[in-house]
Design a protein that fits this description.
Radius of gyration: 27 Å
Protein name: Glycoside hydrolase family 3 C-terminal domain-containing protein
InterPro entries: Cellulose_deg_GH3, Fn3-like, GH, Glyco_hydro_3_C, Glyco_hydro_3_C_sf, Glyco_hydro_3_N, Glyco_hydro_3_N_sf, Ig-like_fold
Oligomer: single chain
Strand content: 15-25%
Structural class: alpha/beta
Strand order of the largest sheet: 2-1-3-4-5-6-7-10
Keywords: Hydrolase
Distance between the termini: 80 Å
GO molecular function: hydrolase activity
Largest sheet: 8 strands, mixed
Organism: Streptomyces rubrogriseus
C-alpha cells in the first residue's frame, strides 16, 4: 500500500528532514509519504547483540522467539534496536562501532533514512560490559536523597548517550506491596511518596543527559498475589489510585519522562497492555502525557498466550494499539506480518497505526534522528580513526573515577544501621572473624539487572570487567593491623551446614564477629533475589539463620551485615546482635562503603525504604496499613515490623524540640506552616532525616494509619542546631473518595514529625475547615521544607 500524496519539499531537503519546520508538520509529511509496511516497521524493535569485533549487530534469538531475519526487515525501516550492549559482553568502543555500522545500514537501506532508537536497561547503571555498577534502586530509596540520585542518573545517561543509546528502561516506579516478590530490589520502596520523589529525580537526571526515561511498570505489577512474579493482582480502584499511581503521576508531571512501559499485569480482568482507560484515558487525556508507550518485553504477545483475551497475533496487536500502546518490544512478533494483514483486511484501522507512528516519529524528531546532519557516529567515536577496530579496544571508559565516586556516595548514604549496642564503630579490634557466604563474594554487591549478574553469568569465560573488591578485601585495608579470619559457614541457599562448626570456632577465637549474609541476585530462579526469584517466606535463604544463631551462641559480639535485595526477618538476631547493618545490593563501591561504616570512617545516614519484618510469615504487609492491618487480639499473626519504614541510626544523637504550628487551621484549599528545631547532641557529625507523616483520624473511606507526605535531610555538626520550616498544602491530605474522585475533606489531622514510621518525635494537631474540595492531577504534591542554622558547632567538639 503506497500513499499517493503530494508532499511539500525543497530542492535541498525533504520537509520531514527540515528542522526549521515544527515537529508535527514534519511528522505529518513523513506519515503521508510512507507505505503501510514502512509505517508498521517503525512500531517494533529487534533484539540484537553488538559485535565484539566491531561488525554489525547480530539478531538475538531469545528462547521465546523465532530467529529474526534482519536483512529482510531493514529495507522497510526499523523502530528500535533492543539492548545492543546488554545482550552479550562487548568492549564498549567496539560495541559503539558495531551499533554505528548497524545504524548506517538501517538508514541506507530504507527510503527515508530513519535511524532506529537504541534502548538499554539502566536499573543499576548502564547495563553494559565494563560500565559502572551503581547501587540498586532500593538503595536509592534508602538515601532519602533525590539530589544524589539525580546526579547519578545524569552520569548514567551521559555514558549511554556517548555510545549511541537513546532510551533507558528505567526507573521502576512499582510500590512494594509484598517483600516476598523477587523484584523488590528493583523498586525504590514501599511508600508512594518516597518512590515518586526519588524516581522523579532519576528521570530528571536521565532526561537531562538526552536519554528517554521509561517509567515502568504501568501499573500494578508489584501487587501480585503472594509476591509471585507475574501472578494475578488483586487491586481495588482506591489502592491503585492512592498507592500505585502517584509515583507515575509525579514522574510524568515533574520528571518530563518521554516514555512509559505497560505492565504485564491485569487488574480486574483487563491487562495493562490492552487497557484503554489506563493508557489513553488516564495517562494521555488526563495527565497530558505526550510520549511513547512501549510494551514490556513480549507483553503484546502475552495478550494471547498468557491473558487469553485475543484469538491470534493480529488481534493482540490491534488490542494494544487501540488501548494506546505504540511500540512492541523487544522484537517483532505481533506488529509484523500479522498486523499488516489485519490492516489490509480491515480488522485493524490504519488510523491506529498512524496515531502510534506520529508519537514514535515525533520522538525521533526530538532526538534529532530526522535531522539532515544526523550522523551514526556516536560522540565517543567522533573524530576517531575507525579503520582498525582492534585499535579501539579499551578506548572508551564507562567506569571512570567520577562515576565510582558517585557510586560510592550513593552506597554510603544508603547503608542503614538498624541496631547498635555501642560495638560500632569498631575500635581497632585485634581479631575479626569475618564469616558468611557473602564475606568474600565479589558479586554479592550486585543486583540482578547489573551486567555481571544479568548477562555476565552466561559468559563465565569473560572477565567481569569491573573492580569488585570483596568485604574481606576492604576490611583488610580498613583494619591493616587486625588479624582477620575468614570462614564461609554456609552458602547463600545451598543449605550446607558442615562449615558451621569451623565458623563458630573462628568466632570464639575473635574479638568480634562480622557475619555477612543475604542474597545472590539472579534471574528466574537462579538467585534468591531478582526477577522470577520470589521467596516463600522472609526467612534468610538456605541455612543462613542456623549459621547466625550458632554465631550468636559463640559468646563473641556479632555484627550482622546484610547484602540483600529484600528485607529479611532475622529471628533472635534482631535483639541479640551487637549491631545490624543493612545494605541493599550497594554496587561496585558497596564493600568500601560498608567498611567505612564499620570502622567509623563514615557515619551511616541511610533509612529503611521498606520495613524489616518481625516474623518471616507476616506477608503481605507494609507500614501503609489501615487499622485492621495492625496487630490485634483476634489474630495470632503479628505484622509489627522489627524495624519500621524510615528507620535508621547513626553514630551521634539528635534532639527534636520547639514545634510551632503557625497555622493550626486552614481551609481545604490552604496550607499549614510549621517549624521545629533539630540539634546534634552527640560528639560526631551526623545527618538526621526528618520525616513528616499524616494521620487522618476520621475519613469517609478507610485510610492508612499514617503515610509519608514529606522528608528532608538535616546534616549537623556536633552541637549544631537547625530550625526546620515546612509548608504543608491541604492537597497532601487528599485521597480517593467513595465516588472515585480525589477529595480534600474538612476535619482534624495529625502532622507527625518522626525519625521513622515507628518513631514519632513531635506531633501537631491541625484542622482543615470549609467545604469538601475536589482536586485533580494539578494538585500540589509536596510539602516545602527550608532550613536555617540557629547555632554553630560547640567549640572544640
Amino acid at each position: 500500500m503506497t500513499a499517493d500524496v503530494a508532499v511539500e519539499t525543497t530542492p535541498e531537503i525533504p520537509l520531514w528532514n527540515d528542522p526549521n519546520h515544527p515537529v508535527a508538520t514534519r511528522v505529518d509529511a513523513l506519515v503521508a509519504a510512507m507505505t503501510l509496511e514502512e509505517k508498521i516497521a517503525q512500531l517494533y524493535g529487534v533484539w540484537v547483540g553488538a559485535s565484539d569485533q566491531g561488525g554489525e549487530v547480530a539478531p538475538h534469538q531469545h528462547d521465546m522467539e523465532e530467529a529474526v531475519d534482519l536483512d529482510a526487515l531493514v529495507p522497510a525501516g526499523l523502530g528500535q534496536l533492543t539492548r545492543p550492549f546488554g545482550t552479550v559482553p562487548v568492549d564498549p568502543a567496539l560495541g559503539a562501532l558495531s551499533l554505528m555500522r548497524t545504524q548506517a545500514r538501517i538508514t541506507s537501506a530504507g527510503r527515508f533514512g530513519i535511524p532506529a532508537v537504541a534502548h538499554e536497561e539502566c536499573l543499576a547503571g548502564f547495563a553494559a560490559w565494563g560500565a559502572t555498577a551503581y547501587p540498586v534502586p532500593l538503595s536509592w530509596g534508602a538515601t532519602f536523597d533525590p539530589d544524589a540520585v539525580r546526579r547519578m542518573a545524569a552520569a548514567i545517561g551521559r555514558d549511554m548517550r556517548s555510545v549511541g543509546i537513546h532510551q533507558g528502561l528505567a526507573p521502576v516506579l512499582d510500590v512494594v506491596r509484598d517483600a516476598r516478590w523477587g523484584r523488590v530490589e528493583e523498586t525504590i520502596g514501599e511508600d508512594p511518596y518516597l518512590v515518586g520523589t526519588i524516581g522523579t529525580a532519576y528521570v530528571q537526571g536521565l532526561e537531562s543527559a538526552g536519554i528517554v526515561a521509561t517509567l515502568k511498570h504501568f501499573v500494578g505489577y508489584s501487587a501480585s498475589r503472594a509476591g509471585r512474579n507475574l501472578a494475578p493482582s488483586s487491586v481495588g480502584t482506591r489502592e491503585r489510585a492512592d498507592v500505585l499511581l502517584p509515583p507515575f503521576e509525579m514522574a510524568v508531571r515533574e520528571g518530563g519522562s518521554r516514555s512509559v512501559m505497560s505492565a504485564y499485569t491485569d487488574i480486574d480482568g483487563v491487562p495493562a497492555a490492552a487497557d484503554e482507560a489506563l493508557l489513553t484515558g488516564l495517562l494521555r487525556d488526563t495527565w497530558g502525557f505526550e510520549g511513547t508507550v512501549v510494551a514490556d518485553y513480549f507483553g503484546v504477545a502475552f495478550l494471547k498466550t498468557l491473558h487469553g483475551i485475543t484469538a491470534d497475533w493480529a488481534d493482540a496487536a490491534g488490542a494494544a494499539l487501540k488501548a494506546g500502546l505504540d511500540v512492541e518490544l523487544p522484537t517483532v512478533k505481533t506488529f509484523g506480518t500479522p498486523l499488516v494483514d489485519a490492516v489490509t483486511d480491515g480488522r485493524v484501522p490504519e488510523a491506529l497505526i498512524d496515531r502510534a507512528l506520529r508519537r514514535v516519529l515525533g520522538q525521533k524528531a526530538e532526538l534529532g534522528l530526522l535531522d539532515p546532519d544526523w550522523s551514526p557516529v556516536p560522540p565517543a567515536l567522533d573524530g576517531v580513526d575507525l579503520s582498525d577496530p582492534e585499535a579501539l579496544r579499551g578506548r572508551i571508559d564507562l567506569d571512570r573515577p567520577e562515576n565510582r565516586e558517585l557510586a560510592r556516595e550513593i552506597a554510603e548514604k544508603a547503608v542503614v544501621l538498624l541496631t547498635n549496642d555501642g560495638t560500632l564503630p569498631l575500635a581497632r579490634p585485634r581479631r575479626i572473624a569475618l564469616i558468611g557466604p557473602n564475606a568474600a563474594e565479589a558479586t554479592a554487591v550486585l543486583g540482578c539487572y547489573s551486567f555481571p549478574r544479568h548477562v555476565g553469568v552466561q559468559h563465565p569465560e569473560v572477565p567481569v570487567g569491573l573492580d569488585l573488591p570483596t568485604l574481606y578485601d576492604t576490611l583488610t585495608a580498613e583494619f591493616p593491623d587486625a588479624d582477620i579470619t575468614l570462614a564461609r559457614g554456609t552458602g547463600v541457599d545451598d543449605g550446607e551446614v558442615s562449615g558451621i562448626g569451623e565458623a563458630v570456632d573462628a568466632a570464639r577465637a575473635a574479638d568480634v564477629v562480622v557475619a555477612v549474609l543475604g542474597d545472590r541476585a539472579g534471574l528466574f530462579g537462579r538467585g534468591t533475589s531478582g526477577e522470577g526469584c520470589d521467596a516463600e517466606s522472609l526467612t534468610l535463604p538456605g541455612a543462613q539463620q542456623r549459621l547466625l544463631d550458632a554465631l550468636l551462641d559463640s559468646g563473641t559480639p556479632v555484627v550482622t551485615v546484610l547484602l540483600a535485595g529484600r528485607p529479611y526477618a532475622l529471628g533472635r538476631a534482631t535483639a541479640e546482635s551487637a549491631a545490624i547493618v543493612q545494605s541493599f545490593f550497594p554496587g561496585e563501591e558497596g564493600t568500601a562503603a560498608l567498611a567505612g561504616v564499620l570502622s567509623g570512617r563514615t557515619s551511616p545516614t541511610g533509612r529503611l525504604p521498606v520495613s524489616v519484618p518481625g516474623s518471616a510469615g507476616a506477608q503481605p504487609t507494609t507500614y501503609l496499613g489501615a487499622r485492621l492491618a495492625q496487630a490485634s487480639e483476634v489474630s495470632n499473626i503479628d505484622p509489627t515490623p522489627a524495624f519500621g519504614f524510615g528507620h535508621g541510626l547513626t553514630y551521634t544523637t539528635f534532639a527534636w524540640s520547639d514545634l510551632v504550628a503557625h497555622t493550626k487551621e486552614a481551609p481545604t484549599d490552604g496550607a499549614f506552616s510549621l517549624e521545629l528545631t533539630v540539634r546534634n547532641t552527640g560528639e560526631r557529625h551526623g545527618t538526621e532525616v526528618v520525616q513528616l507523616y499524616l494521620h487522618d483520624p476520621v475519613a469517609s473511606v478507610v485510610q492508612p494509619v499514617q503515610r509519608l507526605i514529606g522528608y528532608t535531610r538535616v546534616p549537623l555538626a556536633p552541637g549544631e542546631a537547625r530550625r526546620v520550616r515546612v509548608e504543608v498544602p491541604a492537597d497532601l491530605a487528599s485521597f480517593t473518595g467513595r465516588d472515585g474522585r480525589r477529595i480534600v475533606e474538612p476535619g482534624d489531622l495529625e502532622l507527625r514529625f518522626a525519625a521513622s514510621s515507628t518513631e514519632p518525635r513531635l506531633t501537631a494537631t491541625v484542622a482543615l475547615t470549609g467545604p469538601e474540595r475536589r482536586v485533580d492531577h494539578t494538585r500540589r504534591l509536596h510539602a516545602v521544607f527550608a532550613q536555617e542554622t540557629v547555632e554553630g558547632a560547640v567549640e572544640g567538639a
